[in-house]
Amino acid sequence: MEKKSQHQSSSLIRKTDGEDFSDLNYESGFGNSFSSEAIDGALPRGQNSPLVCPFGLYAEQISGTSFTSPRKLNQRRIKPSATHEPFKPRVPAHGKLVSEFDKSNSYTTPTQLRWKPVDIPDSPTDFIDGLYTICGAGSSFLRHGYAIHMYTANKSMDNCAFCNADGDFLVVPQKGRLWIATECGKLEVSPGEIAVLPQGFRFAVSLPDGPSRGYIAEIFGTHFQLPDLGPIGANGLAAPRDFLVPTAWFEEGSRLGYTIVQKFGGELFTARQDFSPFNVVAWHGNYVPYKYDLSKFCPFNTVLVDHGDPSINTVLTAPTDKPGVALLDFVIFPPRWLVAEHTFRPPYYHRNCMSEFMGLIRGGYEAKADGFLPGGASLHSCMTPHGPDTKTYEATIARGSEAGPYKITDTMAFMFESCLIPRICPWALESPFMDHDYYRCWIGLRSHFSYEEADNESDGELTMWDMEQRILCA
Ligand SMILES: O=C(O)Cc1cc(O)ccc1O
Ligand SMILES: [Fe+2]
C-alpha cells in the first residue's frame, strides 16, 4: 500500500532544528511503502533517478537488504550523505561495544545472572558514550547474530549523529524520553514505547528529561517483522496500524564541525562534514525507522487451565532461516488478567534451548517478588534452569486453587529471546551492579514431597508395588 502524507503542503515546510520536537507527525503501518514530502512536489513523480530532481535536490537510496530483495528507501536530500571527510577511528575509542563475540572479548557461563539497575552517571554522558554491550552471539561481519546493549545517559548528543552499520537497533527506553532525529523525520519515544532504528540510518538522540536509561537489542543480517498469528486469526498481539513512522523533516544551512559517528564492526569511527545529515526533504519506501507503544499490545492467554508459552506475547521477531526459530524475539509481559483454574499461574520452572535476556520497564515481574527491579536485567542462557523465586512460589500455593480472576497491573517486563547462546562481556560480569546473591532466590524452595500424602490420595486400591513396599516396611 502506498501512503502519502496528507497534511503536508509548502506552507508547512519543516526546517526546524533538531531540538524542536513540538511538531511531531507520524504515518501508521508496518512494512508498507510510505511516502513523505516536507515540501510538496519534492519527490519526483514516475521515476527515482531523474536527471535533475525537483528543487535541485540529490536522490539517494538506502538499501536494507540486498538489491534483489524488495526493501529500499529512496530519499531526496539537499546534499548526498557521501559529502564528508574520510572516516577516522574515534578518539577516545569507545571500548565497551562488541559486535563479534569470541573468547578474546567475552565469556560464557551457564549460571543464572541478574543485574541491579545501573546508576546513571554524574559526568556528562550522551547516548553514544552511555552505550555498553552486555552480551551477544555471532558476528556483525558475518551478518548473523545479535548484541544486547544498555545505555545510561544524561546529556543530548551535540552537533553529531550516530550511524550503525552493523545492524538494526530495537531501543527500549526504561527511564527518560528519547527525542530521536532521523533522516526520515522525528520520533519521540517514551518509556513504555519502543523504537526500531534500522541499520545504516543516521540519527541523533536528545534527552528532554535528562537522566535516561534503557535496553537495546541489535540484530545482524536480518530485520524485525510481525509474528504470524496462526490460529489467532486476523486480530491480536501488535497491530500493524499501531506502528508509527516519522514524516519528512529537514534542516538547512551549514553546521560547522558536524560529526558523523559510525559504528562499524563494533568500533566507532568519525567523519567531519559542514552540514546536518538531516537534510532529507522527501522520501519514499518501506525501509524506515518506527516506534510502537507497548500499551497498544492485545495479549492473548489461556482462559481455562495451564500456562501458555511466552511466545504468545511476541511483539516483533527477527527470523533465522529455520522456520519458527528466532534470531531474536521481542516478547512482553504486559498488564493482563490471569484467570486459569487449578493452575500455577506464574511462569513454570523451566529450561529452554533458547536463551532469555529479560528487562523490566516498570513495576514488578510476576515471577520475582524481590530483586528484579525496573532498569535491572537477567540472563538465563540455553538450558539454564530458572523460574519463580521462593516467595512467589509460596504465595501462589498459599492463594490456593480457588484463586479467582486476578489482574496483574503496574508491570511491563520484556524478554529478548534468541536461539544463539550469548557470550557475556567482561564489564557486565565484573559490574558492581551484578547481583551475586541471585541464586539464593531459589535456595529456600523446600521439598513439599510427602509419600504418605501421595499414598493417602490414591483411590484406595493397592498396587503390587504398594504391597511390596508395605511388606518391606513391616
Ligand atoms: O523466564 C521467564 O520469566 C520468562 C518466561 C515467562 C513465562 O511465562 C514462561 C516462560 C518463560 O521463559
Ligand atoms: Fe524463562
UniProtKB/TrEMBL annotation:
Binding-site residues, Fe cation: 350, 356, 386
Pfam families, sorted: HgmA_C, HgmA_N
Class of enzymatic activity (EC top level): oxidoreductase
Domain Homogentisate 1,2-dioxygenase C-terminal, residue spans: 295-449
EC number: 1.13.11.5
Binding-site residues, homogentisate: 365, 386
Reaction(s) this enzyme catalyzes, per UniProt: homogentisate + O2 = 4-maleylacetoacetate + H(+)
Name under which the protein is recorded: Homogentisate 1,2-dioxygenase
